[in-house]
């Protein structure tokens, strides 16, 4: 699903939940830049998905039209289909990667880097491959909890015993830098680009 379609879906979803919102109401609810919201609202108005009306004192309100409601239904269907496809592909990739790590490289204890939904999908394939999940690590989510485990930071990995780190953090601009940093903590495999997985880092002092 294109980024533009996703943003349009977010806007029409907000407008379908509450009638007569101002532009400020919308960008506060979506936590989106005001300039970006303004640009997309103008685009949706040109398409006939929304209409503008005024209310005192000099407030511009945005309302969803019947056409906009129909487009919301279409975009929602596309989003569900896209999410299902993403889930299925992530599960397949994780299952294949973990199978290889378990059978060929004898990995038995693993760390996931990335406290995101795709990590939960990947975790579904651990049991079938007899791999133990030691920890979730993620600098952006350090201290939170995922699947009952506290998310740790990169430096915390030095105190853990594991065979490999599976990189499951999606869409990061600094992937290459992050992967090189993780490689200093142990063997690192990138779920999304296994062919270019980071090389083995220094040997860990605590391996099982």
Describe this protein's structure.
The protein has 208 residues and is α/β, with parallel strands linked by helices. The protein has 2 domains: 62 residues, Arc Repressor Mutant, subunit A, CATH 1.10.10.10; 108 residues, NAD(P)-binding Rossmann-like Domain (Rossmann fold), CATH 3.40.50. The protein is built from 6 helices and 8 strands; from the N terminus they run H-H-H-E-E-H-E-H-E-E-E-E-H-E. The strands form 3 sheets. Strands 4-3-7-8 form a 4-stranded parallel sheet, with helices on one face. A hairpin with a 2-residue loop joins strand 5 and strand 6. It is elongated, with a radius of gyration of 22 Å. 30% of the residues are buried.
**Strands, total number:** 8
Largest sheet: 4 strands, parallel
CATH architecture of the largest domain: 3-Layer(aba) Sandwich
Helix content estimate: 40-55%
> What is the CATH C level class of the largest domain, in words?
Alpha Beta
**Span between N and C termini?**
42 Å
The number of helices is 6
- Determine the structural class based on helices, strands and strand pairing: alpha/beta
Order of strands across the main sheet: 4-3-7-8
C-alpha-based Rg, rounded:
22 Å
Low-confidence stretches: 195-208
CATH-defined topology of the largest domain = Rossmann fold
CATH superfamily of the largest domain: NAD(P)-binding Rossmann-like Domain
Beta fraction of the residues? Answer: 15-25%
**Arithmetic mean pLDDT:** 86
* SSE run: HHHEEHEHEEEEHE
Task: Tell the overall outline.
Answer: elongated
Q: Give the domain tally.
A: 2
